Amino acid sequence: MYEILEKKVLSANEKLMKIRAPLIARKAQPGQFVILRINEQGERIPLTIADFDREDGTITIIFLEVGKSTKQLGLLEVGDSLLNLAGPLGMPSEVKKYGTVVCIGGGVGIAPLYPIVREMKAVGNYVVSILGAKSKDLIILEEEISEYSDEFYITTDDGSKGTKGFVSDLLDQIILRKDKKIDLVMAIGPIIMMKVVSNLTKKYGIKTLVSLNPIMVDGTGMCGGCRVMIGGKTKFACVDGPEFDGHLVDYDNLMLRNQRFVGHEKDACRLLEEKA
Amino acid sequence: MSVQRTKHPMPQQPPKERIHNFREVPLGYEKEVAVAEAKRCLQCKNKPCMKGCPVEIDIPGFLHCITLGEFDKAAEVIRAKNNLPAISGRVCPYEDQCEGECTLKKAGEPVGIGRLERFIADYERTKGASVPKMPPRNGKRVAVVGSGPAGLTCAGDLAKMGYEVVVYEALHAPGGVLMYGIPEFRLPKAIVHSEVDYIKRLGVRVDYDMVVGKSVTVPELLKEYDAVFLGTGAGLPNWLNIPGENLDGVYSANEFLTRVNMMKAYDFPRHDTPVKIGRVVATFGAGNVAMDCARTALRLGAETSYILYRRTEAEMPARAEEIEHAKEEGVVFMLLTNPMRFIGTDKGILREVEFLKMKLGEPDESGRRRPVPIPGSEEKLQIDTALVAIGQSPNPLVPQSLPGLKLGKHGNIITDDEGRTSIPRVFAGGDIATGAATVILAMGAGKKAARAIDQYLMVKKEI
Questions:
Q1: What does the alpha-carbon distance between residue B213 and residue B217 come to, in Å, rounded to a whole number?
Q2: Nearest-CA neighbor of B195 among B132, B152, B142?
Q3: Which member of A227, A239, A265 has the closest CB to residue B246?
Q4: Are A170 and A104 within one domain?
Q5: What pTM was estimated for this model as a whole?
Q6: Where are the beta strands (DSSP E) in B253-303?
């Protein structure tokens, strides 16, 4: 059993949990994810690893309560345990010295960005971080990420913190500043954000990696439910990804496939609320 | 004395009733019928049936016990060779194996060996299978990767020889394809659990959520264990590779069956994992997995469940019994039909499939007549769901993480007849080595590998 050791409420529907999982912590690398199950009736929920501590034998997950399963997960408290936790899954981020790396996190995508920022800095990159969200309450891990960033920016849609606007607007300004050649852009967040960022960097020919979050079942390459189109080829996000070349991703197909069970999700949420 | 020419029939749920539930279709023999069926066995001296059994069960031996009403003893005879009789007694293609070799087949139907194996396994299960007297532990440890039929068999046999065995399972439940692939109505999951419990009672430990290659690597296992057996199966879906295959509504058979079987999507919302099928479902392929998909779709409420296959019934790889069950339940077979593309709505939701009609030409390398397209025969069929069941390839997760492991061109692990791989102390068997095959062949491979592991470790010990 995988005990919850710490729980933090980050925003209205964003929560952090530190979980005892020594075997996963031992192997985890930035960019990888876990699959968890809450109870016997539960779905297999994929979540990117937001942090890990090999010595303590813990991993941290940060999740947005969007559906029944994540809402149920949010109800668990310190001392409770998860029924299943498997990982680390997927390929790790390719952390190496690129030169200047711009790390962009949007909303809950900020969470998996954190270990990447930390590792990118550790291997000697000049790290520019941009965190974006709808409003200031949804900006998470500000201190943690700024600590490892050479430049650090925040954008909010409503202007309640940082620059008003989207991360892509700010990225465009940074690119146009031309004081540093950008060698890599790493973008994690809502699909639409990754799409806009990729379109922008494509124009400038800047290598861009994105982390995709399609619907998954087993997470071991068995079912193909998480298939994504990359440069016209079918890839499985769970074993080939979750990170891919942002310029090759068919974002429209991903958006569509992520809507596959929206009706079921609504029904399940309604039932959960009725029960509560 | 004359012998009845036909098998005693086994009662089954009527088709009209069973397409509304996930309960098992065949209901098993009553005691008296089982005894009468076993009495059909001629007890041939040369035991031809045994030649057809990959796990070497003393078939005339256990049939004889049944004729005497000694069911416990019959169970003992089976268990001596087969760790999973309630499973093989349900999903084995007996007609190609033991029953295919039965002398009675020359003048009628063979003895219903499969039905009798199932009868004994079920009899034993209702009273709790007894664990044989175990030898003392020999101090050697073996890691088994994957808890499917190959892994469970290998683990059980090694435990009975005195080895300490730990099974590493990537998913949250045991059984591999027995759990995620084969539907409840063909192999009830309670039976898989009870067979796994038997293996555990032999002293085998099963660790879940352990994705070997990710959570732990094979080289790490080799440090902790004297040998490693890889039985990770053929868990990589093959695709049609036609336009529109990523539309909403197209599933691999693996995804569809995993949602329904392992995650119990048929019980949504009591279970959290959903599945969506609509009114018209088309399954592509004609193997056992395709039959499972088409029949599952009916049980989920599909109004029409099609099987589209590019050859004819004679070439279908599925067992005759499965095809028969599918027909009884109203699955519609569209033969000599080859899909060309899936067409979606402007929202990307599957709406129809376009196909070409085929005719049979010259035989191909498999010996089956090759389907040839008939030019200009394009047609469209409106469908809500497409299930792609055209086979699986070996799962690459473990092979990829083990440098130096010799692989075949389909990504299968190359082994010798006894399951030895190109890496010392690493053995493999089942679908990961052969490509997608049957449960019983995987069990046979697990058994051979257990023997090879024992030989290897015992010889080494003497040196």
A1: 5
A2: B152
A3: A227
A4: yes
A5: 0.94
A6: 280-284
Contact B345/A at CB under 8 A: no
Q: Does the distance separating the beta carbons of B274 and A268 come in below 8 Å? A: yes
Å between B424 CA and nearest CA of chain A: 25
pLDDT at residue B20 in the model: 94
Chain B residues with CB-CB distance to A261 below 8 A: 274, 276
**Measured between alpha carbons, how far is A166 from A106 in angstroms, rounded to an integer?**
9
Same domain, A40 and A172: no
Residue A94 in domain: no
Q: How many domains does chain A have?
A: 2
Burial label, A178 (beta-carbon count in 10 A; 0-12, 13-18, 19+): exposed
Least CA distance to B400: which residue of chain A? A239
pLDDT tens digits along A56-114: 999 999 999 988 999 999 999 999 999 999 999 999 999 999 999 999 999 989 999 99
Say how far apart CA A215 and CA B395 lie, in whole Å. 20
Q: Contact at 8 Å (CB) between A134 and A103?
A: no
Among partner residues A88, A217, A260, which is closest to B263 by beta-carbon distance?
A: A217
Mean pLDDT value across residues A198-227: 95
Whether the upstream peptide bond of residue B269 has omega within 30° of 0, thus cis, is yes
In a shared domain, residues A153 and A183: yes
Instruction: Judge if the upstream peptide bond of residue B243 is cis by omega within 30 degrees of 0.
Output: no
Task: Specify whether the CB–CB gap between B239 and A234 falls below 8 A.
Answer: yes
| Side-chain half-sphere CA neighbours of B125 within 13 A | 21
Give the range among A141-155, A209-223, B55-69, B357-371 with minimum mean pLDDT: B357-371
Please state the ipTM of this predicted complex.
0.94
Q: Considering chain A, what percentage of its residues have pLDDT values greater than 70?
A: 100
Strand, coil or helix: A76? coil
- Tokens matching residue A156: 């909010």
Please report, in angstroms and rounded to a whole number, the separation of the first and last CA atoms in chain A. Answer: 26
* End position of a domain, from candidates A57, A89, A121: A89
A145 CB-contact burial (10 Å; exposed 0-12 / middle 13-18 / buried 19+):
buried
CATH number at residue A168: 3.40.50.80
| A131 & A208 share domain | yes
CB pairs under 8 A between A and B: 116
